[in-house]
Amino acid sequence: MADIQIPDAIKPVDGRFGSGPSKVRPEGVEALSAVSRTLMGTSHRQKTVKDQVARLRRGLAEFFSMPDGYEVVLSNGGTSAFWETATFGLVREKAQFAEFGEFGAKFVKAVTDAPFLAEPTVHRAPGGQAAYLTAEAGVDVYASVHNETSTGVAVPVRRVEGADPGALLLTDATSGGGSLDVDLRETDVYYLAPQKALGSDGGIWLALMSPAAIERAFEIKATKRYIPQFLDLVTAIEQSRLEQTYNTPALATVFLAAEQLDWMNAQGGLSWAVKRSAESAAALYGWADRSSFAEPFIADPALRSAAVATIDFAEGVDAATIAKVLRANDIVDTEPYRKLGRNQLRIALYPTVDPSDVIALTSCIDYVVERL
């Protein structure tokens, strides 16, 4: 294995294919370096940083064609913190979940463990398949995942037909946001992370919230329910309106995400990003369909994600070894999600990744397998 040297001529120009943290554009890092003396190490309560937060919020609003009345809200802690924030600040009494992977399961656990909420209804599907929400009396929050990062299953964002009036839909777009098409009018909270399609570092959560979701947060806050200050959604909303966060954010994360959004908006926004990710997906899944030793993990083509792809390998072809050889050749982060436990590779297809590099990756895999 150590002797396999992939020729430079067939390697990707950029060998980063991680599903999160994902590839950060070198141009973004260069732009960050240019403001290292004016932004980094400065107060997040002052105009220099507030301008970057405002830039990030504007970029998201433009990219997702945010409807009137919706607001971009952000705070610290990443998606894991947002699940707890939503548990405290958006679920009035009972939630329903569509769970079909590790990330959806984490939100389910947060709500299930909350002693002040009713036992949630959970529709589950095994890895590689999708679960769906159904109308249920008494449910005030529905929650699903746009793209399941652990499995590479993607489902459309649609409101639940027949849901009780006022029921909210929360969509986990941690890894789908920015690579998959969405109409925000079909959901009340579309939340995502900066270290996926936004090509930044982690550490904050971002949410595009409808007027109904914002109203719900203030309604629950008024009930005097105990909410830890760090997880207080009303605080996050009010601080976001001031172009800041409750406590100090990662300034580099905010800047890099804003830089990425400016770049994607200049290319054509969400429609451009969706098309670019789809081009990468077509190249990878097409290769797997033609391969004698690989196949897409997701059997139903309609569920195959254009954000994160999972590729199974035949018995006798060790995906873990392939990933090690690729890593030794500076092609990194193709390993599968650890808890899935499959003989597969997982490849990010975010807009930051050039489709030509995905094609090059498939050539490299062929080259390695021939020599193993």
From TrEMBL:
Q: What does this protein do?
A: Catalyzes the reversible conversion of 3-phosphohydroxypyruvate to phosphoserine and of 3-hydroxy-2-oxo-4-phosphonooxybutanoate to phosphohydroxythreonine.
Q: Mind listing the UniProt keywords for this protein, alphabetically?
A: Amino-acid biosynthesis, Aminotransferase, Cytoplasm, Pyridoxal phosphate, Pyridoxine biosynthesis, Serine biosynthesis, Transferase
Q: Which organism is it from?
A: Actinoplanes oblitus
Which gene specifies this protein's sequence? serC
Domain Aminotransferase class V, which positions? 140-331
One MF term in the entry's GO annotations: O-phospho-L-serine:2-oxoglutarate aminotransferase activity
InterPro entries, alphabetized: Aminotrans_V_dom, Pser_aminoTfrase, Pser_aminoTfrase_mycobac, PyrdxlP-dep_Trfase, PyrdxlP-dep_Trfase_major, PyrdxlP-dep_Trfase_small
Task: Give the protein name, as stated in the record.
Answer: phosphoserine transaminase
- What family is it from? Belongs to the class-V pyridoxal-phosphate-dependent aminotransferase family. SerC subfamily.
- Reaction catalysed by this enzyme: O-phospho-L-serine + 2-oxoglutarate = 3-phosphooxypyruvate + L-glutamate; 4-(phosphooxy)-L-threonine + 2-oxoglutarate = (R)-3-hydroxy-2-oxo-4-phosphooxybutanoate + L-glutamate
Please list the cofactors this protein needs: pyridoxal 5'-phosphate
Quote the pathway field.
Amino-acid biosynthesis; L-serine biosynthesis; L-serine from 3-phospho-D-glycerate: step 2/3
Asked whether the UniProt record includes Cytoplasm among its keywords, one would answer yes
Q: What is its EC number?
A: 2.6.1.52
